Model the fold of this input.
Amino acid sequence: MKRLLYIFSFIVVGLALSSCSSNDNETPEEEPSPLQAEVRMDVSYGSNPQQAYDIYLPEGRTASKTKVIVLVHGGGWIEGDKADMSNFISLIQQNHPNHAIVNMNYVLATTSIPAFPNQFLDIDSVLNKLTAEAEDLQILPEFGFIGTSAGAHLSLQYDYVYDTDNQVKFVADIVGPSDFTDPFYANDPNFQVALGFFVDEDAYPGVTDYAAEVSPALQVNASSSPTIMFYGDQDPLVPLTNGQTLKDNLTDQQITNSFTVYEGGHGDDWSQASIADLQLKLSGFINTHLPIAE
Done:
């Protein structure tokens, strides 16, 4: 009997020692290191060489929290380049280091390539590509737009008409044309010729009022995103009434909006104090409408 107890005790102790030894040798799982910041330049999103964007991915990004700010340049729909928005990249990286940034080009209008709706659809292609690659990029496909001049017009129109999945959470409109039925444009015969040049009539129903159809101020609806607007009181290219009409229509639809008017023209002659004020208000709007969870 004593011998059996001795053997049983020996087995129990051996198993215990074996268990301890096994646990001691187990290597604890290491948590993955945070992703490093990364920049990918001239990412193609279509067959045209102009269909390209740069993407700035922040350090420590994750697919559950890293939202995206999209920059859309101006240039009258026929010129301009994403390089024109470089100042906004440094501003965002300084004040909103946890956001990803996409700085996009679109196919510029020519005599054979109309601007509308092609440039709206270019934005759609960019957002679709980013959404499809969200897991690889480790981004959350929620977007805010910052557009200047023609780029502001494209951003507004995309949000108000094409963003059916509500992926866009805000639009920043800096001197963007918003109402082509405004007498400033409607009474200008040269603009009416230009409008015919810009619109692909085959893409719209035959009875379409093209000036109204591509005017984002006239497309505001209950699903439009919060919009922050900046205009000059002496702008020779975009009348202040365009900004006021947009503000009034947003307010009528109970869409959150902010409207600021500075002394000066199309933005290039605004004072340093005005630029600083714009940056401060824009940063606050980003924090409110495209926040990054802690």
About this structure: The two ends are 65 Å apart (CA to CA). The domain at 35-289 is CATH 3.40.50.1820 (Rossmann fold). The chain has a mean pLDDT of 92.
